[in-house]
């Protein structure tokens, strides 16, 4: 377990509000190469909200117009991560890149405020053979960002990502992420609980999700099947009927980001929502 804090699951499913799902527009509706058009496609498919990890290929004005024209809520964006073609995946854990990190956070806050978005995922960057200098830079930068988020009434998110999916990604441990969040001790810094990554990094989903919930550390949830990152009802390691019931039992009321790769077309793949008893 990530910590000794855990609450027993109730033996019977208690009556709670339905779970809320938002489309990740970097993974879904890629039938259109135009990110802006995907807002409208998400609305037509029945979504009420979206998340966009990498919005910076467009101006904030373009994104705001696409969001408002579609009548959608913007749940989440990432910080600007630099140039992925050069191996850049954020600057938080990169010594000597403090100015780039602060600029990336400031830019994300500007986008988030214009989009009325309350969650920002702070990506750590890719590091081969991290040293104490990387650890120190990461903590210093996250502390700085958290102060910004407190002023702007935004929740910053740390997402541990498995290194099979993203080689050399620095923040690849829920234990390390939880320890840092508890050390900084701010209501504006929480965990991005991506069940896809949690399963591959630590497994033991019930105890780990319960532990994070009991500590009040879950800021956002994302889902995808393991190992192929398909829809929740596709074959793989995770029983999502159980995971969704667990999220209800811990009374998770936030959005659940669908950060998966559709195995067919996006709309056809959404059949799982009704089949599992949910609505968009």
TrEMBL record:
A Pfam family annotated for this UniProt entry: AP_endonuc_2
Reactions catalysed according to its record: 3-hydroxypyruvate = 2-hydroxy-3-oxopropanoate
Domain Xylose isomerase-like TIM barrel, first and last residues per copy: 41-275
Keywords: Isomerase
Active-site residues from the entry: 159 (proton donor/acceptor), 259 (proton donor/acceptor)
UniProt protein name: Putative hydroxypyruvate isomerase
Known EC number: 5.3.1.22
Gene that encodes the chain: LOC117643151
Record has Transcription regulation as a keyword: no
An example Gene Ontology biological process: glyoxylate metabolic process
General function of this protein: Catalyzes the reversible isomerization between hydroxypyruvate and 2-hydroxy-3-oxopropanoate (also termed tartronate semialdehyde).
GO molecular function: hydroxypyruvate isomerase activity
Family note: Belongs to the hyi family.
């Amino acid at each position: 377990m990530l910590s000794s804090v855990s609450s027993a699951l109730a033996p019977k499913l208690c009556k709670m509000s339905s779970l809320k799902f938002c489309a990740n527009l970097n993974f879904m509706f890629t039938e259109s190469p135009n990110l802006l058009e995907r807002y409208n496609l998400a609305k037509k498919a029945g979504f009420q909200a979206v998340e966009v990890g990498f919005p910076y290929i467009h101006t904030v004005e373009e994104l705001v117009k696409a969001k408002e024209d579609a009548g959608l809520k913007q749940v989440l964006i990432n910080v600007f991560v630099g140039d992925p073609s050069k191996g850049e995946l954020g600057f938080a854990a990169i010594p000597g890149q403090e100015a780039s990190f602060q600029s990336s956070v400031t830019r994300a806050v500007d986008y988030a405020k214009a989009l009325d978005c309350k969650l920002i995922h702070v990506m750590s960057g890719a590091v081969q053979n991290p040293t104490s200098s990387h650890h120190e830079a990461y903590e210093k930068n996250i502390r700085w960002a958290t102060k910004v988020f407190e002023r702007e009434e935004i929740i910053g998110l740390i997402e541990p990502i498995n290194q099979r999916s993203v080689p050399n990604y620095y923040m690849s441990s829920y234990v390390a992420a939880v320890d840092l969040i508890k050390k900084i001790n701010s209501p504006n810094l929480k965990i991005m609980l991506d069940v896809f990554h949690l399963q591959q990094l630590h497994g033991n989903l019930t105890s780990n999700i319960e532990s994070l919930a009991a500590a009040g550390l879950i800021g956002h949830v994302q889902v995808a099947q393991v190992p192929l990152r398909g829809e929740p009802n596709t074959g793989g390691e995770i029983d999502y009927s159980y995971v969704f019931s667990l999220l209800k039992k811990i009374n998770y009321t936030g959005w659940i980001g669908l950060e998966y790769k559709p195995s067919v077309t996006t709309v056809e793949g959404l059949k799982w929502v009704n089949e599992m008893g949910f609505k968009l």
